[in-house]
Amino acid sequence: MPNTYDPQNIFARILRGEIPNKTVLETAHTLAFHDIHPQAPIHVLVIPKGPYVTFDHFAAEASAEELLDFHRTTASVVAMVGAAEGGYRAISNAGVNGMQEVPHYHLHILGGRVLGRLVERA
Ligand code: 5GP
């Protein structure tokens, strides 16, 4: 997937305050909010505020401060929403094969039920 960032994507619009969100936690570099169509009792999206398209784009190009803030915020979110107790899954979809819908890097934190196998057999 090319790392060309579309500033009109829905998460960019959420970050600009054009679309409301149910915020779990916000820091200087990171926003965590509830997914609008939850796939599990716990379904939170964690996004960097910077213009990164995928996990690998973020991992390759974000500053050390952004990377640290994103991961420490994710850890706080996991604790805040009670995902750690029963276990959870952190997923990031990328590109066509990953069936990524929103081209702004995000980590799904899913929990609150047994989530099944990681991928379906083809
Ligand atoms: P992806 O398929 O890109 O990994 O996941 C995108 C996620 O964003 C989906 O789970 C979808 O429900 C969620 N989503 C899409 N639009 C909105 C929105 O406007 N608000 C919130 N909170 N979540 C959204």
Describe the overall structure:
The structure is a single chain. The chain is of the alpha+beta class. It has a single domain (10-111), classed as HIT family, subunit A (2-Layer Sandwich). The protein contains 4 helices and 5 strands, in the order H-E-E-E-H-H-H-E-E. Strands 1-2-3-5-4 form a 5-stranded antiparallel β-sheet. Strand 1 and strand 2 (30-34) form a beta hairpin. It starts with 9 loop residues before the first helix and ends in an 11-residue tail after the last strand. The mean pLDDT is 96. Bound molecules: guanosine-5'-monophosphate (5GP). Guanosine-5'-monophosphate binds at residues 10, 19, 21, 33, 35-37, 93, 99-102. The site of guanosine-5'-monophosphate (5GP) has 12 residues, from loops.
Low-pLDDT regions: none
Rg over C-alpha atoms, rounded to the nearest angstrom: 14 Å
User: Going across the major beta sheet, what is the strand order?
Assistant: 1-2-3-5-4
The count of helical stretches stands at: 4
Largest sheet: 5 strands, antiparallel
In terms of topology, how is this protein built?
Blueprint: H1 10-15, E1 23-26, E2 30-34, E3 42-48, H2 55-61, H3 64-80, H4 83-86, E4 88-91, E5 107-111
Antiparallel strand pairs: 1-2, 2-3, 3-5, 4-5
Bound molecules: guanosine-5'-monophosphate.
